[in-house]
Write a structure and sequence with these properties.
This protein has 8 helices and 10 strands. By secondary structure, the protein is of the alpha+beta class. The protein has 2 domains: about 15-65, no CATH class; about 70-215, Transferase(Phosphotransferase), domain 1 (Orthogonal Bundle). The strands form 4 sheets. It has a 3-stranded antiparallel β-sheet, with helices on one face. Strands 4-6-7 form a 3-stranded antiparallel β-sheet. The N and C termini lie far apart (about 60 Å). The model has no long low-confidence stretch (mean pLDDT about 85).
Length: about 230
């Protein structure tokens, strides 16, 4: 299943928001490049894939990607440093990344911050493809209103949930345990928490509409001037 997901990414338009991967089989590296702690972890989590010899390490199958800082760590550091401007920028980038993936008919599945990386240029890129799926295969639903208060207090949902059902209203608490960050992101991209937004993108894809995905931030886009407004210097 994981290999199928990576193949999907390899053959799909990544719109600059999914890390490119290189696939290797039977890759041999010098053992001196690995710490003992790393070798121990690899042998614990992937014993059938990693074979350690006296002077080399054989990895039967692996994917490599561009090195990035996981977004959850990046955000934690910004909060610790009190860098509100950079925090605002990376949260906006995160929302734009999700929206641009959606425009390319991709739903990340697991949208936790740890599954996104931040490049040295501050661009947010998705890199964990285990649960990736075509957006048009998803079913986005609104959470039905509870019939009585006891239903809302129940540990189990009071509504039916089928495989493939997604409830965007649940995203805020799931993605942003920190209330201040959640409120900031909601102000920037609160439409991602509504089923109607996702259904509208699905409808546009079904109609064959090609949505623009620009490789630069809105701040760098050229603005349309009114036809009767003189250009400075003319």
């Amino acid at each position: 299943m994981v290999k199928d997901r990576y193949y999907l990414v390899k053959t799909h338009d990544r719109v600059g928001r999914m890390a490119d991967t290189q696939e290797y089989s039977n890759l041999i590296l010098p053992r001196c490049r690995f710490s003992e702690a790393l070798l121990a972890e690899l042998q614990q989590v992937a014993p059938s894939t990693v074979i350690v010899y006296d002077d080399k390490v054989l990895i039967r199958h692996l994917y490599t990607e561009r090195r990035m800082m996981p977004m959850n760590i990046y955000v934690e550091r910004l909060v610790e440093d009190g860098n509100d401007q950079a925090l605002e920028a990376v949260l906006d980038e995160y929302g734009r990344a999700i929206k641009e993936l959606a425009a390319a008919n991709i739903f990340p599945g697991d949208m936790l911050l740890k599954n996104f990386g931040v490049t040295r240029h501050g661009r947010v890129v998705f890199y964990d493809y285990d649960e990736i799926i075509y957006l048009t295969e998803c079913r986005f639903r609104d959470i039905p209103e509870a019939l009585y208060p006891e239903q809302e207090m129940s540990a189990e949902p009071w509504y039916s949930v089928s495989p493939g059902d997604i409830f965007p209203e649940e995203f805020p608490v799931f993605l942003f345990p920190d209330l201040a960050i959640r409120q900031r992101f909601t102000r920037l991209h609160g439409d991602l928490f509504t089923a109607s937004y996702w259904r509208s993108i699905q409808q546009q894809i079904a109609q064959g509409r090609v949505m623009d995905v620009l490789p630069y931030s809105p701040a760098l886009q050229l603005k349309n001037l009114p036809a009767n407004k003189p250009v400075k210097g003319k």
